[in-house]
Amino acid sequence: MSTGPAGHVARSTVRPHSETTRGTRVRAQLRTFLRTSDGVPIEAVYDPGAVVYDPGSAVYDISRTPADHPVFVVAHGFTGAADRPHVRRVAQAFARYGAVVTFSFRGHGASGGRSTVGDREVLDLAAAVRWARELGHARVGTVGFSMGGSVALRHAALHPRQTDAVVSVSAPARWYYRGTAPMRRLHWLVTRPEGRVVSRYGFRTRIHHRDWDPVPLSPVQAVPRIAPTPLLIVHGDADGYFPVDHPRMLAAAAAGQGELWLEPGMGHAEHAASDELLSRIGEWVAGRAG
After folding, report:
1. In 3D, which of 40, 32, 30 has the Cα closest to residue 10?
2. How would you write 238-272 as a 3-class SS string?
3. Looking at residue 67, what is its pLDDT?
4. Fewer CB within 10 Å, N or C, the chain?
């Protein structure tokens, strides 16, 4: 599926609105299309956050500018999109701690292109992070779920100066895992022509028909390259897609340079993340992306 270097920096097709110049607080939601470095249009949404959380004083301040508080860039899971209810719920939770950028990966939602299931999606996340910086934010935290979690890890490794904190939730450690029934079904969707038809019309997700060539850097290979950027790995011990050996492999690869939260009773990705967990992640990013 690879067609060019995944390390290229993406650019936006729009310049920031007059109210979004550096040092000015945006108070309304913004929607736009970004263009990745390989030319794919990506739908993106910016929520300024109703209030700003100061982790030092544990209070909320409505007077500070984008340069003063972090922005959360949320990378959704496979078949998600910026306007899916579970993604909006995540954005609403993080808006208590800063601004939030959500976007739809290629092949998802209103974005163009076709999904490469974690390979070229690094360029989509790079475009969203760049937009967050253009909007005036000096501190950026990326939070990815499932496929988006693997993309967040790979993005931090391939773009070491773009993000200030990284959170990976329910991500795989290695490619081609088929050890659970949900992952065997997902591989059918991705690799079989009839599966891609089901994905397109049943899940509104358009998948590229080509195999990876070359095989991209895996999440566990990416993790050692992330330090010294703060890293948090979150995983449920009841995840039906990836068992707990995946987060443990990722944590071991971090060699003491990351944190691991194994959440009792939690299932998979955004749908399984409780409001309490999202609040803890929000506090973690607000405290580390400084």
Report:
1. 40
2. CCCCCCCHHHHHHHHHHCCCCEEEEECCCCCHHHH
3. 65
4. C
Q: Which two tokens stand for residue 175?
A: 């490619």
CB atoms within 10 A of CB 98: 27
Q: Which of 40, 44, 34 is nearest to 6 (CA)?
A: 40
Number of helices and strands (H, E) in the chain?
A: 9, 11
**Mean of per-residue pLDDT scores for the chain:** 88
Cα distance between residue 126 and residue 271, in whole Å: 24
Does residue 20 surpass a pLDDT of 70? Answer: no
241 backbone dihedrals φ, ψ, rounded to 5°: -95, -55
Q: What is the pLDDT of residues 115-155, one digit of tens each?
A: 999 999 999 999 999 999 999 999 999 999 999 999 999 99
What single-letter DSSP state applies at residue 97? T
| Cα→Cα distances 163→137, 178, 199, Å | 11, 31, 31
| Burial class for 194, CB neighbours closer than 10 Å (0-12, 13-18, 19+) | exposed
User: Which residue would you say has higher pLDDT here, 71 or 11?
Assistant: 71
Task: Enter the pTM of the model.
Answer: 0.87
Q: Are 135 and 66 in contact (CB under 8 A)?
A: yes
